[in-house]
């Protein structure tokens, strides 16, 4: 049986994600689909407009068989670390194929670029004034776009090769522009949808579910106040992930001259540090995520249907990671912290979902929580 792995953030789940799932079902009829899902904060350092629980339910409703968690401590890191953790989880769940979206159609071009980075003589040149994605794109040449999706795809391919995973990578060409924030096509980017939500626009044509009350409102003013307090009262900002090379001093200087998260990011942003990297750093400061992060402790099962449940039983003894939560681990403690901060910013109650730790089970069209692990 083909077991298809995907990695998604669903911020929010939209028509493009549904297209992704339908294409997988066309290519691999009767396959089992396993989703590694990022939760409350995204790889770009944004606050999710859907709760983790709602993401799981939507994934199961629209064709995913088994949903597992990408922990916060890995899900808000740079592409290489994000890819490494995600694929480690999916590999432990025995996937045979990994399907991901790209801007570049030819997978062989992406493979060539990925494998070149593993060669001992590969160098990313530059005097340090340019940011890493720009320098990497220059080193890889003109064949590959510098879009986040292609660079993340390269990280996926590199990790599969480096770890000798027996996983077949498969790409699906994206149908919308990552940078587009204005179009009204049937399939538009998640960024476009979030921008429309901020402006109070109707996004129902762009999502496959009709209950728009699922979208949460993020209190960005409160987020900035909490972050400002953390920056101005913590004398050891350098202990947090991504706070490097004196950025702690820049943070203290610029936060008092800024009036919003966006303004603070732009005041810190430079040729060396991208918008997304600064945004991730600020989330790490807000949550208090340290530089030294322990190895993955467990795989958390978030949801499944009957097919996914039965498959999971076959993998328990094969996985090198347990499927039971280690409540003493940093992985678990920071998931709770991320949930609590998310609740403050969105007026939700996700912490109850985290503490219940019950798997969401879908049978036909009905949902229920299961104690099955």
Fold and architecture overview:
The structure is a single chain. 42% of the residues are buried. This protein starts with a strand and ends with a strand. The protein has two domains: 282 residues, Rossmann fold (3-Layer(aba) Sandwich), CATH 3.40.50; 68 residues. The protein has an eight-stranded mixed β-sheet with strand order 5-4-1-2-3-6-7-8, with helices on both faces. It has 15 helices and eight strands.
Strand content: 5-15%
Sheet with most strands: 8 strands, mixed
CATH superfamily of the largest domain: HUPs
Q: In total, how many domains does the architecture comprise?
A: 2
Radius of gyration: 20 Å
H and E string: EHEHEHHEHHHEHHHHHEHHHEE
Query: For this structure, what is the CATH class of the largest domain?
Result: Alpha Beta
Number of strands: 8
Number of helices: 15
